[in-house]
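Why should sequence recovery work at all? Because a backbone constrains its sequence more than one might expect. Tight turns favour small or flexible residues, buried strands favour hydrophobic ones, and helices have their own preferences. The token representation captures these environments compactly. In the example below, the structure is given first.
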């Protein structure tokens, strides 16, 4: 009975993946359309490309072969196939894994009223962060300061910007202090979801990219915390110093708005951010 049930589940999983793959076109996901297609929807290699997983592994998974896949793998496939809450949970159950909370696989968005609030703060840079510190909404003042709209979605993450973007690091005259304060708050936020695969994946990535992040994460020694950056060089080279306030946008989805309040600072500009 158990063997028949397992075989049926694998067939259901294969049918599920093929069905959802057929619902999407290359244009839907930003891929070029090349040549004729014998069947509708995305090809397996396109799903693997979008998910960032190996084609062979995805093929075996879709075929229902006896392969072990991680929660991170399933989340990547769910995002590539644009599954909604119920569909993502179904995918996990068919793969014999516990479904994750929605915030683990959804790219959150804000309501029109929250976006209007951001836009109304015309003189103050402001943006909304999720639990992983992805920037999911911002106003024009924040875009002028941090160029969010010119970044790929995956790169609109405050931790990645501060620790893995050399250009941004150069523009932070108090980089060492700012980076460690931000990291201290990020570590505190991790306690909310210590097993979240997307958080853990980001942490692993940044440990490899930044020795400072790795040391600060593994050996924390900070008494001050911050969600916003304290000092930024504008494109014209002038230094702008900020204080911040944090507003809760959606407690359930861990969305917070960071509002920047500029304070004048006299004195020479320090541009040796790389020395940290």
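From this structural description, the recovered sequence reads:
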């Amino acid at each position: 009975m158990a063997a028949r049930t397992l075989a049926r589940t694998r067939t259901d999983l294969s049918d599920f993946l093929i069905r959802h793959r057929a619902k999407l076109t290359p244009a839907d996901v930003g891929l070029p359309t090349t040549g004729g297609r014998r069947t509708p929807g995305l090809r397996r290699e396109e799903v693997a490309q979008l998910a960032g997983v190996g084609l062979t592994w995805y093929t075996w998974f879709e075929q229902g072969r006896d392969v072990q896949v991680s929660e991170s793998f399933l989340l990547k496939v769910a995002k590539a196939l644009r599954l909604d809450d119920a569909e993502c949970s179904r995918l996990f159950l068919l793969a014999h894994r516990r479904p994750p909370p929605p915030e683990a696989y959804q790219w959150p968005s804000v309501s029109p009223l929250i976006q209007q609030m951001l836009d109304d703060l015309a003189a103050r840079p402001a943006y909304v962060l999720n639990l992983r510190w992805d920037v999911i909404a911002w106003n024009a003042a924040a875009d002028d300061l941090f160029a969010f709209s010119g970044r790929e979605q995956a790169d609109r993450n405050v931790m990645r910007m501060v620790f893995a973007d050399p250009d941004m690091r150069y523009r932070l005259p108090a980089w060492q202090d700012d980076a460690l304060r931000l990291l201290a708050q990020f570590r505190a936020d991790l306690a909310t979801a210590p097993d979240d695969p997307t958080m853990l994946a980001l942490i692993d990535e940044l440990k490899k990219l930044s020795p400072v992040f790795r040391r600060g994460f593994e050996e924390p020694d900070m008494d001050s915390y911050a969600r916003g950056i304290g000092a930024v060089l504008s494109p014209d080279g002038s230094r702008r110093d900020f204080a911040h306030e944090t507003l809760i946008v959606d407690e359930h989805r861990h969305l917070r708005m960071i509002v920047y309040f500029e304070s004048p600072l006299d004195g020479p500009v320090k541009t040796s951010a790389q020395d940290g």
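A few observations help interpret the result. The longest helix spans residues 2-23.
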